[in-house]
C-alpha cells in the first residue's frame, strides 16, 4: 500500500476559469441519495457523483460540483480553487488509475462540515509509483497541495483515493 501526506507549498495562487465544454457528452451521474444532510442555507451537505473514465466527463463533473458548492453558499474564490484541485485529481484518476479503460469509473464525494470542505476522489485502478514522463508532466500533486489546505494520497490493491480539504474563507 502506498500512503502519504503531501505538504502544502507556500506561494501565490493562480485561479483560472473553468467553463463547460458543450461537446463533453452526457453529464456524470450525481447521486441525490448522497445528500445526507442540509446546510443552514437549505442546500445538501453532501455531494457524490460517478463519472466514466473518459476525459470528456471532466467538464460536466466540474459543473455538477460547481452547482452544488454554489448552492451551498461557498464563496466563489473557494469554488474556483476547489474545482481546479478536484479536476486535477479526477484527470489523474482517469489517466493513471483507470488508464482510460472502458467501463471504469471515478467517484467524487464531498461533504461540508463546519466551514470545512472535505472531498474524496476514488478510482479502482492500480497504483504505479514513479516519475511521470516528460518535462511538462507530474505537477498534479503540487497543484493540489498549493490550492488546498490538506491533500493526502492513499493507494493500494483496491485503488487510489485522494483526500482534499479546504478551510472555507467564507460563505456568500
TrEMBL record:
InterPro entries: Anti-sigma-factor_SerPK (IPR050267), HATPase_C_sf (IPR036890), HATPase_dom (IPR003594). Residues 1-38 are annotated as: Disordered. GO terms for molecular function: ATP binding. Keywords: ATP-binding, Kinase, Nucleotide-binding, Serine/threonine-protein kinase, Transferase. Gene3D superfamilies: Histidine kinase-like ATPase, C-terminal domain (3.30.565.10). Pfam families: HATPase_c_2 (PF13581). Residues 52-166 form the Histidine kinase/HSP90-like ATPase domain. It comes from the Bacteria. This is ATP-binding protein. It comes from Micromonospora humidisoli.
Amino acid at each position: 500500500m502506498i500512503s502519504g501526506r503531501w505538504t502544502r507549498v507556500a506561494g501565490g495562487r493562480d485561479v483560472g476559469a473553468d467553463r463547460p465544454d458543450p461537446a463533453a457528452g452526457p453529464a456524470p451521474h450525481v447521486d441525490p441519495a448522497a445528500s445526507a444532510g442540509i446546510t443552514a442555507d437549505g442546500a445538501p451537505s453532501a455531494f457524490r457523483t460517478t463519472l466514466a473514465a473518459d476525459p470528456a466527463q471532466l467538464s460536466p463533473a466540474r459543473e455538477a460540483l460547481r452547482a452544488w458548492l454554489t448552492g451551498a453558499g461557498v464563496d466563489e474564490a473557494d469554488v474556483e480553487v476547489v474545482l481546479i484541485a478536484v479536476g486535477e485529481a479526477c484527470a489523474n484518476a482517469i489517466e493513471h488509475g483507470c488508464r482510460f479503460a472502458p467501463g471504469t469509473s471515478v467517484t467524487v464525494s464531498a461533504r461540508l462540515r463546519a466551514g470545512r470542505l472535505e472531498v474524496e476522489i476514488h478510482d479502482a485502478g492500480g497504483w504505479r509509483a514513479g516519475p511521470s514522463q516528460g518535462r511538462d508532466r507530474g505537477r498534479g500533486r503540487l497543484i493540489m497541495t498549493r490550492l488546498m489546505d490538506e491533500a493526502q494520497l492513499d493507494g493500494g490493491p483496491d485503488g487510489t483515493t485522494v483526500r482534499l480539504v479546504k478551510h472555507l474563507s467564507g460563505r456568500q
